[in-house]
Design a protein that fits this description.
- This protein has one domain (about 5-215).
- It is an all-alpha fold.
- The radius of gyration is 17 Å and the shape is globular.
- The longest helix has about 30 residues, at about 120-150.
- Helix content is about 80%, strand content about 0%.
- It has helices at about 5-15, 20-30, 35-60, 75-105, 110-115, 120-150, 155-165, 170, 175-195, 195-215.
Length: about 220
């Protein structure tokens, strides 16, 4: 029985908002000790499959894929993304680290130790794939779809932000989630303001490349 348009939208939202979290939990469940590449690579492939499913649903539900995060893209997208990354690397990151230390809660070290057991080329691939698709799923697709359904921009943004924060719990834990909810709120506000997903993708990828890959050296 084919899905109705409303059913298709519901499937798309579940895949976008819940799917990555389920994959993150599965990734932890099937991970080996010591870390090996195969289980993590399998769940990365599942993440790509889910993303492609949401892209197909977005194309099917319309009006056009261009409305999902590309309306505000322009000449400033690339330099703006670099500026955003610089803010998170040199201002927000150190401040968040100091705040977590002052609160006496665990930081990003446990998650980084897990990731750093994997090959560097794989980490680069993971950052590019996960950071870019997270931005499109949680910011562009989810906010645009929820906004059309509810008629309320900030309700759509709040649901998206909550799901984005929860998806990081399996790997990073509750301490870093406190930091991620704030950084996610900044990204969400920027998306609502300018609707430029390219800027956010560049900022997210560059920030994570610095924090995850370069921190390994």
């Amino acid at each position: 029985m084919p899905l109705t348009p409303s059913g298709l939208i519901q499937v798309g939202l579940v895949l976008a908002l819940v799917g990555p979290g389920l994959i993150a939990m599965l990734s932890n469940a099937i991970a080996t000790t010591p870390e090996t590449l195969a289980p993590r690579a399998l769940t990365l492939l599942l993440f790509v499959v889910i993303t492609m499913g949401v892209v197909w649903i977005a194309h099917a539900q319309g009006p056009t894929l261009n409305t999902y995060g590309f309306a505000g893209a322009g000449w400033f997208s690339l330099p703006g993304g670099f500026l955003l990354a610089a803010f998170f690397i040199f201002v927000y990151g150190p401040a968040a680290y100091a705040a977590l230390l002052a609160l006496g809660v665990s930081g990003f070290d446990i998650g980084l130790n897990t990731l750093h057991a994997l090959p560097q080329w794989y980490l680069i691939l993971v950052v590019i794939v996960i950071a870019s698709t997270e931005e499109w799923l949680y910011r562009a697709y989810a906010i645009e779809t929820l906004e059309r359904l509810t008629g309320r921009t900030w309700l759509a943004a709040g649901i998206s932000l909550g799901a984005f924060t929860l998806v990081h719990l399996p790997l990073w834990g509750p301490g870093p989630a406190l930091s991620i909810v704030i950084s996610g709120a900044i990204f969400t506000a920027l998306y609502i303001w300018h609707r430029d997903i390219i800027l956010l993708i560049v900022g997210h990828v560059c920030t994570d490349l610095y924090g995850i890959v370069l921190s390994r050296t």
